[in-house]
Amino acid sequence: MKKSERKIRFDGTDPDEVNLRREGPPPEPADYCPTAGKTMHATERDAERVAAHQMAGGSPPLRTYFCLYCQHWHLTKAD
User: Fold this and answer.
1) What pTM was estimated for this model as a whole?
2) Which SS3 state, helix, strand or coil, does residue 56 take?
3) What letter does residue 50 receive in the DSSP assignment?
C-alpha cells in the first residue's frame, strides 16, 4: 500500500472507525477534480469521514488516495 493510501477496517474493531463515526456527518465537498471527475476533499480525514458515512449506508468498501493533479483527497473502491 502506498503512503498516500490507507484502509480503515469498518468492522467495529478499528479505533479510527469509531472516531470517524463520532465526528458526525462529513463536510460538504467543495468541488470536483477536473482530471479525475471525483469529489475533492481538503484533508484525508474529511475523505475518511465521507467513506465511513457512505459505507455505514451500505456502500462497498472504500479507500482514500491523494490526487497529484488537484492536490486533494478522493475516494475509490477498496481492492
Assistant:
1) 0.66
2) helix
3) H
